[in-house]
User: Which sequence fits this backbone?
């Protein structure tokens, strides 16, 4: 007898439909699994046999062949257990006529325990999303993954064990979309932040730079001695970014689903904040592996990638960042296939000004030689620095500032301005794929960032006297555009350009002494 | 009697031996009479006569014979430079008096070899503080405008500021460098080096044309800085620093050493304060330095302005700029400090600071602003 069950599989972070064909024939009782299964799929054999027996069914003593179509694509994941088990039951005639017919109405995803329990598995959300596009079938998924059905707005049944699935097929229990499936995606996310900007004392310049970064999608480099609040500021950056749109949220959730990082909470979370340690390998950062998985840059998609001790990252790790910073995605090529992961993040890098950390500190002495300091700074120079629009030098906060009672602005207040500035940008870029000022193309810069009266002279003076390089001019214009948006101004004004100069300490060589 | 070409080549070969080059090279010259004669000897004779080990003598002979003197002459000519040998005309007289006078001196530009030239060495730390920057600039400007020739080492920090002050006023300044004159170290001073030559200054070294910047070169060139100057001024320097080595050399050569006092808790001023405690004269303005010059050197100076009571016209600032400047005072301030103290928005303050910075009134490093001038 032959059975054909529909399931799905993940390639990168996209799902595609897989048919699980099961054939039982007379002969020596064997079980073979074909169709390029990875190790965890091969192990399904043992789990399925035990699960069938322990759920009160008979394991047929026949020659069983399972084939995963399309057979030329590698399949990974433990979620083939449930469709294989159902295929065997169906092929062995252990399901009623009604149930066999109903098998065609569903797509099955689920890992089985030896006792027949359906366990959670990775990548349910992208599978459901692609399923919605490709067919009209309903889905049976592990009940632990039911939240993902809600995110995907798919019709799904959350199964707890194999017996329950058979009962569903035989009509003994009704198909009801579990209440979880009605999770309110539209629910206006309240900003419930554990950390707020008003807790950061002093550092007005850095706060302003982060506000600009949030408003225009710019990358930031925070530079300063230890204890000046670099990490503290970065952690609070999420709170001033505009709220996630539904599309953005779904993009993030898909990546998290593949990496099994989705919690059970039904609300869509905040923008992701990823802060990998500086010893991270370049593969862990960018994604990859034999069976390519998203890396930190993709986990930070639509959120923040915070690289503390920026200059301590290996050169290889920093170099791989160039592609996502340029194209907002990561492409991993294999001989047979190419995988693409989204990676549109705001980079916040933090570093000390010198190896010992105290260069420029008001009270502590730095022991580094000028050569060491230059070398340390040069570690991050070049193409990577070209993608960073704002740089801030932080200085230690003095006690007077610190104990001052008056609290600064809250994240919510700053966020309001950011949202308003983003709205202006949305209007500006309504006919283009650009979403924020930081992503403007050269043509768009020309179109939307005309120099104000006298602006050209400022840039000229800055280049001549401060040693600003020509390659930073575009970045200055983009940032000035954002500052103008924050000020609610249609045109870039002189003072906007001058303010940007404060955020470019690294490429100004200082007024020439000669 | 002028030296023959062959003799010059032989001297260049001998001079190129920089391994522990010591007084014995001079001694050998005295004994054998000429460079050519020295190179004809074998290692054993040299070691016996010069009282050096046989190994060193062998090493010396090998490196001297391998040195390509002709290529060296070609390089010198191409660079429009010259080389003068000890005892030749054009060799600075004052250098003859120092310990271990260089056998050869490579010179780019114009060097006034008169023993009465009003040459003042100003040296100091490479890790300059805003205070040191202000002082060095002010003193150097006043001196160069009085027609004093500033002598320094073209290093980062104080040295560069001193040369730059002279160059700005289009006055000559001499740079004694720790590499061959065919190189520039540190590389960022290339432009400064060119400006020195353009304004009638000189770049001088005793090392072969293409010598790299090796650590052992620098203390040795410090004796030349002192040797070409009438007195030495130390602006800022740690207790263990090249600047203090120069001061020591100057004392050995019988020159006056003047020192600029600084905060007692600043490592960069530890060395200069120590010099004062040990008896160096204290510098509080450029007049202190001029007063310390030997009479013969003072003759050609133009110090009228320096001694007149008139204050130079103050630069005009807007009300806001004046407020910012008086807040900064002699300290360093961050933009946050200033915004808070003056209750101005960061965006507005940025404009004020930008103007002051491009006009050379303020300097910004690592987010901190300090006055650039007195």
Assistant:
């Amino acid at each position: 007898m032959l059975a054909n069950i529909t399931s799905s599989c993940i390639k990168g972070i996209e799902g595609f439909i897989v048919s699980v064909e099961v054939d039982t024939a007379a002969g020596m009782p064997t079980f073979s699994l074909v169709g390029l299964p990875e190790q965890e799929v091969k192990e399904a054999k043992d789990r399925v046999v035990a699960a069938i027996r322990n759920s009160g069914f008979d394991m047929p003593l026949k020659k069983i062949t399972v084939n995963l179509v399309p057979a030329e694509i590698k399949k990974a994941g433990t979620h083939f257990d449930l469709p294989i088990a159902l295929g065997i039951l169906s092929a062995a005639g252990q399901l009623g006529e009604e149930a066999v017919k109903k098998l065609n109405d569903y797509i099955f995803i689920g890992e089985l325990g030896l006792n027949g329990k359906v366990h959670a598995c990775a990548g349910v959300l992208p599978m459901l999303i692609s399923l919605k596009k490709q067919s009209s079938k309903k889905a049976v998924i592990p009940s632990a993954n039911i939240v993902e059905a809600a995110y995907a707005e798919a019709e799904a049944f959350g199964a707890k064990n194999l017996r329950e699935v058979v009962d569903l097929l035989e009509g003994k229990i009704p198909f009801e979309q579990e209440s979880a499936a009605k999770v309110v995606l539209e629910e206006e996310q309240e900003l419930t932040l554990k950390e707020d900007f008003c807790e950061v004392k002093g550092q007005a310049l850095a706060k302003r730079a982060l506000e600009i970064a949030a408003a225009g999608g710019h990358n930031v480099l925070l530079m300063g001695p230890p204890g000046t609040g670099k990490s503290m500021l970065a952690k609070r950056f999420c709170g001033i970014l505009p709220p996630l749109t539904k599309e953005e949220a779904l993009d993030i959730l898909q990546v998290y689903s593949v990496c099994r990082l989705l919690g059970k909470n039904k609300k869509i979370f905040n923008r992701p904040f990823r802060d990998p340690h500086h010893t991270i390998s370049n593969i862990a950062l960018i994604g990859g592996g034999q069976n390519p998985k998203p890396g930190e840059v993709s986990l930070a998609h639509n959120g923040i990638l915070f690289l503390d001790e920026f200059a301590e990252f290996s050169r290889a790790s920093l170099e791989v960042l160039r592609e996502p910073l340029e194209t907002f995605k990561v492409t991993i090529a294999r001989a047979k296939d190419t995988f693409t992961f989204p990676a549109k993040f705001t980079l916040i890098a933090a570093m000390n000004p010198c190896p010992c950390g105290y260069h420029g500190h008001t009270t502590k002495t730095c022991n580094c030689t000028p050569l060491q300091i230059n070398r340390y700074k040069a570690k991050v120079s070049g193409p990577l620095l070209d993608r960073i629009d704002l740089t801030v030098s932080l200085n230690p906060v003095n006690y007077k500032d610190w104990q001052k009672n008056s609290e600064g602005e809250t994240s919510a207040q700053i966020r309001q301005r950011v949202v308003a500035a983003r709205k202006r940008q949305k209007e500006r870029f309504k006919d283009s794929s650009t979403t924020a000022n930081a992503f403007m193309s050269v043509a768009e810069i020309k179109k939307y960032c005309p120099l104000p009266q006298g602006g050209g002279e400022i840039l000229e003076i800055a280049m001549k006297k401060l040693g600003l390089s020509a390659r930073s001019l575009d970045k200055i214009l983009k940032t000035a555009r954002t500052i103008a948006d924050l000020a609610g101004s249609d045109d870039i004004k002189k003072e906007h350009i001058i303010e940007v100069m404060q955020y470019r300490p690294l490429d100004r060589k200082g007024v020439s002494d000669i | 009697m002028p030296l023959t070409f062959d003799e010059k080549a032989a001297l260049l070969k001998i001079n190129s031996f920089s391994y522990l080059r010591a007084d014995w090279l001079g001694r050998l010259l005295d004994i054998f009479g000429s460079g050519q004669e020295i190179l004809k000897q074998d290692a054993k004779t040299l070691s016996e006569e010069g009282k050096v080990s046989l190994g060193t003598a062998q090493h010396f002979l090998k490196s001297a014979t391998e040195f390509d003197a002709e290529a060296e002459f070609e390089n010198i000519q191409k660079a429009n430079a010259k080389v003068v040998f000890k005892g030749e005309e054009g060799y600075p007289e004052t250098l003859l008096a120092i310990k271990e006078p260089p056998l050869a001196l490579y010179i780019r530009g114009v060097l006034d070899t008169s023993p009465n030239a009003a040459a003042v060495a100003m040296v100091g730390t490479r890790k300059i503080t805003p205070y040191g920057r202000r002082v060095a600039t002010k003193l150097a400007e006043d001196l160069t405008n009085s027609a004093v020739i500033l002598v320094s080492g073209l290093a980062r920090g104080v040295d560069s500021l001193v040369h730059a002050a002279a160059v700005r006023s289009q006055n000559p300044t001499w740079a004694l460098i720790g590499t061959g004159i065919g190189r520039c170290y540190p590389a960022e001073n290339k432009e400064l080096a060119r400006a020195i030559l353009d304004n009638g200054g000189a770049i001088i070294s005793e090392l072969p044309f293409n010598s790299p910047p090796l650590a052992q070169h620098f203390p040795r060139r410090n004796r030349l800085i002192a040797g070409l100057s009438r007195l030495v001024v130390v602006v800022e320097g740690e207790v263990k620093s090249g600047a203090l080595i120069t001061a020591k050399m100057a004392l050995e050569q019988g020159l006056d050493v003047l020192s600029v006092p600084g905060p007692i808790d600043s490592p960069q001023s530890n060395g200069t304060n120590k010099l004062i405690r040990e008896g160096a004269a204290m510098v509080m303005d450029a007049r202190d330095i001029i007063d310390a010059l030997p009479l013969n050197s003072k003759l050609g100076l133009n110090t009228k302005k320096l001694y007149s009571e008139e204050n130079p016209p103050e630069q005009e600032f807007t009300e806001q700029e004046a407020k910012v400047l008086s807040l900064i005072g002699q300290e360093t301030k961050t933009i946050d400090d200033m915004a808070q103290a003056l209750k101005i928005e960061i965006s507005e303050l940025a404009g004020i600071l930008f103007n002051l910075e491009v006009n050379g009134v303020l300097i910004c490093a690592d987010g901190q602003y300090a006055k650039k001038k007195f």
Remarks:
- Chain A touches chain B at residues 202-205, 208, 223-224, 353, 359-360, 362, 365, 369-370, 392-395, 401, 458, 461-462, 465-466, 483, 495-496, 498-499, 501-502, 505, 508, 510-514 (CB under 8 Å).
- The first strand of chain A starts at residue 2 and ends at 11.
- The mean pLDDT of chain A is 87.
